[in-house]
Design goal:
Length: about 375
């Protein structure tokens, strides 16, 4: 593939899907994308997908909205040009932009136990670049704001170099683009944090895309029983494709689901991964693990006023509770290896992709997600 450096240092005019207000359909507009400044990279986005995070902040429920804005953060593309100080990337490199970063200099980045970069940790309120506090997008001289530092619903975007993972150029970008957020989050929650052993029993709370990715991780790890827990029984059949072996709908019982799970697993599951954001599911996920060695991992984001309540005896009985952010993957260091899992046919991504639309029909992707139809919709930027 040819590089795009002929436009280096120039303003690029391209199409972008602009959100002009909360919940309003996106509008395809011609925007101007400024050149990257120091430690920034300008990318040509080839494929992007829609995540629940985009929809949540697009609806702006209970938030201070930042509009007009360009959403999007699950994507894949190529480097068009780089700013001053960028040495790890060059025009033509194949990359995944990521909503969280890795500066490689802060205490978190230098720690083997954390991926929560001090400089580039996710910020949903900031609509500008760190370098100068300004947006790189504009229409007729008026700024259009960024979203989580990526804004991939644009044919070109500018991203901090710490939020760009260079990947195998042979990897199909229309498949690996889904690894920029939810799929890696669920997969890593299982493989990096829960760490189930071969033959173990794993419970997955919530069978959306993130939960199914967690189930995929349990399948890869060799779990013998993968129990899906969800209030929607219609999800159970599809979950079998991801290795889920049995299902529990809490509505089918007149007792807490943690008691049900303890009964069918001889005292509790070895590992549980919670992927709903429901505080009740979080408590159930913790209380359903076996005493002595059980580990529960929380992935979902709770409401700000929620409080986690459980009896201290659960901790004293050596049940372990953990949390995770982006599956504990460091974006620049670890995502290339996740891509290789796919390339080696260890990780299956095609089954997550249920819809595809051209960029001109991006609002259809929102319709699919709002109706609860499918898992991931790939948006072809060149169509």
């Amino acid at each position: 593939m040819s590089t795009c450096s002929s436009t280096e240092g120039q303003v690029i005019r391209c199409k972008a899907a602009v959100a002009w207000g909360p919940g309003k359909p996106l509008v395809i507009e011609e925007v101007e994308v400024a050149p990257p400044q120091a430690m920034e990279v300008r990318l040509k986005i080839l494929f992007t997908s829609l995540c629940h995070t985009d929809v949540y902040f697009w609806e702006a429920k209970g938030q201070t909205p930042v509009f007009p804005r360009i959403f999007g953060h699950e994507a894949a593309g190529i480097v068009e040009s780089v700013g001053e100080g960028v040495t790890e990337l060059k025009p033509g490199d194949h990359v995944l932009p990521v909503f969280t970063g890795e500066c490689k200099e802060c205490r978190h980045c230098k720690s083997e136990e954390s991926n929560m970069c001090d400089l580039l940790r996710i910020n949903t309120d900031r609509g500008v670049m760190l370098n100068d506090g300004k947006s790189r997008f504009s229409i007729n001289g008026k700024p259009i704001y960024h979203f989580v530092g990526t804004s991939t619903f644009s044919e070109y975007t500018v991203v901090h170099v710490g939020c760009v993972a260079k990947i195998n150029p042979e990897a199909p970008l229309d498949k690996v683009c889904v690894l920029s957020c939810g799929i890696s989050t669920g997969l890593g929650a299982t493989l990096n944090v829960a760490k189930p052993t071969k033959g173990s029993t794993v419970a997955i709370f919530g069978l959306g895309a993130v939960g199914l990715a967690a189930a995929e991780g349990a399948r890869i790890a060799g779990a013998s029983r993968i129990i899906g827990v969800d209030l929607n029984s219609n999800r159970f059949e599809e979950a079998k494709k991801f290795g889920v072996t049995e299902f529990v709908n809490p509505k089918d019982y007149n007792k807490p689901v943690q008691e049900v799970l303890a009964e069918i697993t001889d005292g509790g599951v070895d590992r549980s991964i919670e992927c709903t954001g429901s505080i009740n599911a979080m408590i159930s996920a913790f209380e359903c693990v076996h005493d002595g060695w059980g580990v529960a991992v929380l992935v979902g984001v709770p409401n700000k006023d929620d409080a986690f309540r459980t009896h201290p005896i659960n901790v004293l009985n050596e049940k372990t509770l953990k949390g995770t952010f982006f599956g504990n993957y460091k974006p620049r260091t670890d995502l290339p290896s996740v891509v290789e899992k796919y390339m080696n046919k260890e990780l299956e991504l095609e089954k997550f992709i249920t819809h595809e639309v051209p960029f001109s029909e991006i609002n259809k992707a929102f319709e699919y997600m709002l109706k609860g139809e499918g898992l991931r919709c790939i948006i072809h930027m060149g169509a």
